């Protein structure tokens, strides 16, 4: 049974508000997940994160877009271990490895699967300030769906796509197949 998890996070604050690029100062509003094991989309608010950690600890792989540079370090602010040691696939890191530069998820998704994101993360911070949690959850889970679609396309075809500056569609060769990895010892959440 596939126990991969696709995730995305939204934060309560921005780098501009905390005075620089320091993920340790960011707070989570919502984490959205797709669980292959149960074929479900679920969202977790900051006060519900303890319910999510055991599921991630037992995941075959954590998949996302810019997870190594953003999502996982911010999640580590709330977790006793280190999510960066878990088996994972950062789609953006694979794109950078292939092309030598980074691309926005929105641009990759539009060229690859014909779908765009429904907004951007700064909107989610504003919704947080306005107390509109359901809007954050909906936006975050839509990002998870887009990420999942891009992942599945890349897994199936060994390539993604983007539009170059001249409007031409270019291929991004990638390999999303799970790598044989040593099992890393992880901090299992206490079941109290």
UniProtKB/TrEMBL annotation:
Ranges of residues in domain YprB ribonuclease H-like: 7-152
Superkingdom of the source species: Bacteria
Gene Ontology terms for molecular function: nucleic acid binding
InterPro entries: RNaseH-like_sf, RNaseH_sf, YprB_RNase_H-like_dom
One Pfam entry name: RNase_H_2
Entry protein name: YprB ribonuclease H-like domain-containing protein
């Amino acid at each position: 049974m596939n126990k991969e998890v696709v995730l995305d996070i939204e934060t309560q604050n921005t780098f501009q508000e905390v005075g620089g690029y320091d993920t340790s100062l960011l707070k989570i509003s919502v984490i959205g997940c797709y669980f292959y094991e149960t074929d479900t989309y679920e969202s977790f608010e900051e006060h519900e994160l303890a319910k999510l950690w055991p599921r991630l600890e037992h995941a075959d792989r954590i998949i996302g877009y810019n997870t190594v540079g953003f999502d996982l370090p911010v999640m580590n602010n709330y977790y006793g271990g280190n999510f960066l040691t878990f088996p994972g696939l950062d789609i953006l890191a694979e794109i950078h490895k292939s092309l030598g530069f980074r691309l926005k998820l929105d641009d990759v998704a539009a060229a690859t699967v014909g779908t765009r994101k429904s907004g951007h993360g700064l909107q989610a911070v504003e919704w947080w300030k306005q107390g509109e949690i359901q809007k954050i959850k909906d936006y975050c889970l839509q990002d998870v769906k887009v990420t999942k679609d891009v992942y599945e396309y890349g897994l199936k075809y060994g390539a993604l796509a983007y539009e170059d500056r001249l409007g031409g569609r270019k291929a991004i060769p990638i390999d999303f197949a799970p790598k044989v990895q040593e099992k890393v010892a992880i901090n299992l959440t206490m079941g109290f």
